[in-house]
Design brief:
This protein is of the alpha/beta class. The protein has a single domain, classed as Arginase, Chain A. Helix content is 37%, strand content 10%. The chain contains eleven helices and eight strands. It has an eight-stranded parallel sheet, with helices on both faces. α1 links the parallel β1 and β2. It is globular and about 55 Å long.
Length: 393
């Protein structure tokens, strides 16, 4: 396991300036509360905090069009305007002052996390403010202005990585990252998400498997609404480890949107903190098994900003540090008082929802009457033959 000098979190107070306004679900207080909770839990005793510089225009242009970057910059200086063709000024993506600067800093933080891992300064690095996976080359989408995870992957490719695997466990499909590497066989994108029939962005069908020359490098596992820990973990373990092992990545990049939680107001999945924590542990183990421990983790969605996001991501930070927290760990009184003062709410007492996440392995049988099992089977049938895996069990 990585010790105090083998992992880091990239953070700067300015990362909380990515702020669409008081009524927007993407509240930056969730990042602040996460970092406060991790500090009060002693996570940073094992996880140094390092800073980052904003991504430059030239760096952003590796994944975004120059015309789009220019529009973001202009609207940042004049937030009274909008530009719907670029997805800016909408209800999802309202323009705010210094939007470019805030978004570029998040992108730079993910690049810094990737740089530190790839150069061997650390084994693992995390940027919880990152994971803005919906942004497209020339368009904002789904609360995402610049696609920091795609930029981090591009940086890795440009600095010698030959095979990068990206795993996205957000409730929403990781459409922007998939689109940017659709034709690139060096990048494997895997997304486990609520199905497109019931949730934005309406993509992520199992049949989306990659472009010409990159067949099998886009993997999608769409899940029925109402899927809870057992079903989610069954789906994950039935698809993700097998494809990752066949691909053989040099480094693992992950997105940990925790909007899959049962209390999230924007989605229809039913995971617990305990199920989400289980997914972080298995991704850590896969990085250890396949990449010599090289793991770059980011945040993502998550809109139950007081009760869920800070606890989920504090677990992620602790796992990245090499010192996971027990689910039964009490939530520190200092943090609970802060939440009470801030929002007038009674904060959770423990770092658990009291669940014991388990699942039935795919090898134990396929139930064609189950929407979940049909979805899992569709993903296996679509991708496994393309990468040389027998989809039968």
């Amino acid at each position: 396991m990585a010790g105090p000098d083998r992992a880091c979190v990239v953070f700067d107070e300015q990362l909380t300036s990515y702020d669409f306004g008081a009524s927007h679900p993407m509240a930056p207080v969730r990042v602040d509360l996460t970092m406060r909770l991790a500090r009060d839990l002693g996570v940073f005793d094992h996880l140094p905090v390092v800073g980052a510089a904003p991504a430059t225009e030239d760096e952003l242009a590796l994944v975004h069009t120059p015309s789009y970057i220019e529009r973001v910059q202009k609207l940042s200086a004049h937030p009274e305007y909008s530009d719907v063709p670029h997805g800016l000024g909408t209800e999802d993506n309202p323009v705010f002052a210094r939007m470019h600067e805030a978004s570029a800093l998040i992108a730079g933080a993910s690049v810094e996390a990737a740089r530190r891992v790839w150069t061997g300064e650390v084994d693992r690095a995390v940027n919880v403010s990152g994971g803005l996976h919906h942004a497209m080359p020339g368009r904002a989408s789904g609360f995402c202005i610049y696609n920091d995870v795609a930029l981090a992957i591009r940086w890795l490719l440009d600095h010698g990585a030959e095979r990068v695997a990206y795993v996205d466990v957000d409730a929403h499909h990781g459409d922007g990252v998939q689109a940017m590497f659709w034709d690139d066989p060096r990048v494997l994108t895997i997304s486990v998400h609520e199905g497109p029939q019931t949730l934005f962005p309406g993509t992520g069908y199992a049949t989306e498997t990659g472009g010409e020359g990159a067949e099998g490098t886009a993997v999608n596992v769409p899940l029925p609404p109402g899927t809870s820990d057992a079903g989610w973990l069954r789906a994950f373990h039935a698809v993700v480890p097998q494809v990752l092992r066949e691909f053989g990545p040099d480094i693992l990049v992950t997105q940990h949107g925790c909007d899959s939680h049962m209390d999230d107001p924007l989605t229809n999945l039913m995971l617990s903190i305990d199920g989400q924590r289980a997914s972080y542990l298995v991704l850590r183990d896969l990085a250890e098994e396949l990449c010599g421990g090289k793991w770059v983790a980011t945040g993502g969605g998550g809109y139950a900003v007081m009760d869920v996001v800070p606890r989920a991501w504090a677990h992620l930070l602790a796992i990245v540090s090499g010192h996971p927290l027990s689910p039964d760990t009490p939530v520190p009184d200092r943090w609970r008082v802060h939440v009470g003062d801030l929002a007038g709410l009674a904060a959770p007492l423990r770092m658990t929802d009291g669940r014991q996440p388990g699942y039935r392995a795919w090898e134990q049988g396929f139930d064609p009457a189950s929407w979940l099992d049909r979805s899992i089977n569709a993903a296996r049938q679509a991708v496994f033959p393309l990468v040389g895996i027998d989809p039968t069990y």
